[in-house]
Amino acid sequence: MRLRRALGIALSAALGAACSATGTTTTPAPAPADPLALVGISDLDPSPTVVEFALTAREADKDLGGAKLSRAWTYNGAMPGPLVDAKVGDELVIHFKNELPEPTMIHWHGIRLPIAMDGSPSSQKPVPPGGTFEYRFKLRDAGLFWFHPHVRTDVQIERGLVGVIRVAPADPKEQPSVDEERVLVLDDVRVNDDGSFPTYLDDNAKMMGREGNTVLVNGVRDARIALRPGAIERLRILNAANGRFFNLKIPGVRFRVIGTDGGLVESPYDVDTLLIAPAERYDVVFQVPSTPGTLPLTSQPYERGHHTGELPPLPVATLAIAGEPPSVKRELPERGPAVAKLPAPTGEAIPFALDEGTNAAGDLIFTLNGQVWPAVAAARMALNETRVLEITNKSEMDHPFHVHGAFFQVLTRNGAPEPANRIANKDTIIVPAKSTLRVATRFDEVGAWMVHCHIEEHAEGGMMGEILVGDAVSHAH
């Protein structure tokens, strides 16, 4: 048995032997625990190509900003759950047990795998309380992926059920040269004064998705991120929030985007602010300022609908710059590995229209092609066929649209071609209000693959459907 620990986010604080005032060598004190360190997993298989571990969904008490501890739902007692480190070609074997008071399952977001392992209502029955399930699949793509429930998703993710998988490329030379690498899981949570989770969902929370009163970075409130002056820092960022868009900014610093959902991009590009919708991942590098001190990491106002652009900046974390600069000078990466462009699409485009409204009872609903899940008619396409998905947002707000089981590449935005140097493999994308995106996708596994808005309250409110690939049938009806 060996321990695979979360790499890249522990502080560089290894202590050497300490000497007392009399010159006597003493036993060094243990390094202080990094509150931002994500827990790892115990690998049960000695094979270098198999990562096998136990994963239990269970309750645990967590400090989420209330006067009392909150009874969170966790993977292996951690919120967020473990960071699983593996490489392309590895087989993952997960022995899952549900110790929660209600059914759940695990969706492996962004990972291409057989449909039986996808962990969605279209592919699997929920695991009951006390039940178990073995997930087993091979990792085919490098990148940062994550896992979460697909049962009462809005409630179960909000209560803490999130974990991360970092998949390294088979060729280590494809990794950019940096001084530090950190995985950041951004989230927010709303708890009552007594630490309990609100059970009533008002119309604002239904419309915008639950936006919490506490921002969390790797499960920590008021997070401080330690950086070395002048270092080249790599941040691999997941937005695990139910509804909040993070529009990240560090004053005086530009982010260089080197990757997104499906791994590294061929042509990195610079941005002053980094917009990340729920479920998206971004891989960025930047050079830390050379002057010691602190800088705020904030989320800047962004108009995603209903006057959200008028809100004030939101504090996310404090960057604490201290210590010695790196001894080796590195440069920001200029190029990434080649991204294979999908073949030319065939056949007619598959339409997905996103909208919102009210039902006969006056309740707020979210629709896909004019219907509410599970009444949404399934689309169908052939195995290994490249098709266009035409995603039209008829509503007054942005929707992050997610496709299970495959990556897609943007072709046009409101009729304008996507620049050739921006080709990227995505599984979740922002579809702005009153706009149309055309994306190309191809599935290489038969199955009933779900598509939905990844504002969790919108998916649960009806904005969800399926693409049946090959001779697949759905298990959701």
Give the helix tally: 3
Please count the beta strands (DSSP E, at least 2 residues each). 34
Major sheet summary line = 6 strands, mixed
Q: Give the overall average pLDDT.
A: 92
Strand content: 35-45%
Helix percentage range: under 10%
Spatial arrangement of strands, main beta sheet:
14-13-16-21-18-19
- Structural class, please? mainly beta
Overall geometry: globular
- N-to-C CA distance: 42 Å
Indicate the low-confidence ranges by residue numbers. 1-29
As a whole number of angstroms, the C-alpha radius of gyration is 22 Å
Task: Write a brief structural summary.
With 477 residues, the chain is mainly β. The chain has helices at residues 153-158, 203-208, 456-460; strands at 2-4, 18-19, 25-26, 41-43, 50-62, 70-75, 83-87, 91-98, 107-109, 132-138, 143-148, 163-168, 180-189, 214-217, 223-227, 232-239, 246-249, 255-260, 263-271, 274-276, 281-287, 293-299, 314-321, 350-358, 364-368, 379-381, 386-393, 399-403, 408-413, 416-417, 428-431, 435-442, 447-453, 464-469. Strands 14-13-16-21-18-19 form a six-stranded mixed sheet, with no helix packed on it. Strands 25-24-27-32-29-30 form a six-stranded mixed sheet.
